[in-house]
Amino acid sequence: MEPVRTCIGCRSRAPRSSLLRVVAQQSRVVADTSAVLPGRGAWLHPTLECLRPAQRRRAFGRALRVTGELDTSDLENRLNG
Asked: What pTM was estimated for this model as a whole?
């Protein structure tokens, strides 16, 4: 049975393999494609439809337990292609 995680964008539960793990590194949100980077991680569907609500609700800071602003531009560029 595959582990299930919750997307911080749409708040729906999905298998871990269909989500992208992200971590905070030096006030930036970084995609952790291999799911091995140190630190607290959050899970997100790899689509802009889930990224936008997460940014609007400031879900990255809460999920990653980081105070202050987080730069999500690298993640946004990655999802844009």
From this structure: 0.92
